[in-house]
Design brief:
single chain, 226 residues, alpha/beta, Dihydrofolate Reductase, subunit A, globular, binds nicotinamide-adenine-dinucleotide, binds the ligand Nc1nc(=O)c(N)c(NC[C@H](O)[C@H](O)[C@H](O)COP(=O)(O)O)[nH]1
Length: 226
Amino acid sequence: MNSIMRPHVFINVAASADGRISDESRRQIRISCEEDMQRVDRLRAESDAIVVGIGTVLSDDPRLTVKSQALREERVKNGRTPNPLRVVVDSRARTPLNARVLDGEAETLVAVSDLADEERVAALREKASVFVAGQEKVDLRALMEYLYSIGVRRVMVEGGARLNHSLIAEGLVDEIMVYYGGMIIGNGPCIADGPSFKPPVPLELVRVSRLGSGVLAVWKVLADKS
Ligand SMILES: NC(=O)c1ccc[n+]([C@@H]2O[C@H](COP(=O)([O-])OP(=O)(O)OC[C@H]3O[C@@H](n4cnc5c(N)ncnc54)[C@H](O)[C@@H]3O)[C@@H](O)[C@H]2O)c1
Ligand SMILES: Nc1nc(=O)c(N)c(NC[C@H](O)[C@H](O)[C@H](O)COP(=O)(O)O)[nH]1
């Protein structure tokens, strides 16, 4: 794969002990304990952009903002915006106009593909910036190159399952942080949903620690040597 200039990209995800990130209805399940939610807030505050897939916007309607006022103020003191840029990977421009990511609390970029309906894109442009790349799905490499070109150096990916899989498949992920909560979910999307990687993508364990009622594991994605 040709190397590109792109930001450092890490996935942060909360999973059950059986590796599921929600249930079979894809409705959000609170897996993180309070300590983990605080860690997630710090990670957001340290990032330049937070990326999610449209599936996550449709099922969870996240705000993707920094919740701690102290952390927002620290960002401002360092000459940054109070919140990182919110990025939605949304091939067909399905982001609802009343989605929380379009609430104006932070800047938002919706990444769409050539499939997106022009009228929907025009409506989104009223509330967000729009980046177009890719014929059917969003071209994730082009998106990362674009984010780098506008000064984004650290990207936090907050799911979901299919976006995580595509980013890993494209070799665009440097690090994966998994908080394992004390529960078994059974059927449901897993950390990376998609065709099996053959061979499996190798990871190196960077750190593991007990956090609240669960376990935090930090993995480095080993570069594809092929
Ligand atoms: N526990 C957690 O930490 C956590 C975090 C986020 C989401 N979730 C859960 O994940 C589920 C949502 O995940 P999902 O897999 O349904 O949706 P997703 O958020 O991964 O979005 C996937 C969608 O993005 C679009 N897309 C456009 N270009 C793409 C590309 N190049 N590659 C991949 N997708 C592309 C497609 O429409 C695709 O269906 C929900 O159940 C949500 O609750 C859990
Ligand atoms: N870290 C984390 N732990 C969980 O247990 C869980 N279910 C999610 N799911 C991710 C999802 O997209 C959430 O909805 C956003 O973390 C909410 O973000 P906001 O508070 O709205 O900014 N994320």
